[in-house]
Amino acid sequence: MTTLTDADAVDGLRDALGLLKDREQVAERLLESSARHSFDPDEELDWEAPFEEGKWFWPPELVSLYDTPMWRRMSEEQRILLSRHEAAALASLGIWFELILMQLLVRHIYDKAATSAHVRYALTEIEDECRHSKMFARVITRSGTPWYPVARVHQNLGRLFKTISTTPGSFTATLLGEEVLDWMQRLTFPDERVQPLIRGVTRIHVVEEARHVRYAREELRRQMVTAPRWSQEFTRLTSGEFARVFSVAFVNPEVYTQVGLDRREAVAQVKASGHRRDVMQQGSRRLTDFLDDIGVLRGAGRRLWKSSGLLA
């Protein structure tokens, strides 16, 4: 049996103070970046400009049915219409996710010093996410498409998750929601085949989300060192389950009905699509490599990630 010596205690305290100092330094840099590179979508984007004929609302390669038998039977106009509805469904998913994220951030800082840079940046991120949610809602309205809420079961699972989630679990879920969509948006905003308004929305989101990803990654790395073992194991399991929910919720099947497709056939073809599986795994790879590196993808949690289809 080992015993904790005074030297061990001093080393532990020194390590903890070092982590807190690093946390403050990261937050200060992110606050400086926020001051330089934050945008007001209402002012930055031309919301009144008409959509351009023949341009996509999402890169075709990222549309769920791309390269399926059903896709090959569709007209170009119907494919573009599907991209319009899938872009709206992703914006709807983004709003749902950002509402969960804002609540998790408020929980995270509830009992922390409000004067710290770490808390001030969390409040800045909440401010960013409020703007993003309003921006996504406005682009849905401007696109003339429905709002696509997630399924009731996912609404209830989200409500449960944000109630019971631990801090490392919250930041793992944050990265899952942000990094896959971020990968897709980085392909979207420079793509001249895509409508200018959609490109503008994704550009703003990519620039500001880069800070959010850095904040979440740095905090999760610290948490997976300092959190109790039970919390680390709980994080592995909950993150795996959230990955399964996220992979299902990523495409709302109602979009197929809205564009005149057979919903059941479309869902089956997406599930069978090797291209779609590759897209989702490519979009997740940077995140899963990071999670693997810090010890999140282990045991039963790793098996859940594999069953989600996001991890090869």
From TrEMBL:
One molecular function GO term is: oxidoreductase activity
Q: What is this protein called?
A: Membrane protein
One Pfam family it belongs to: AurF
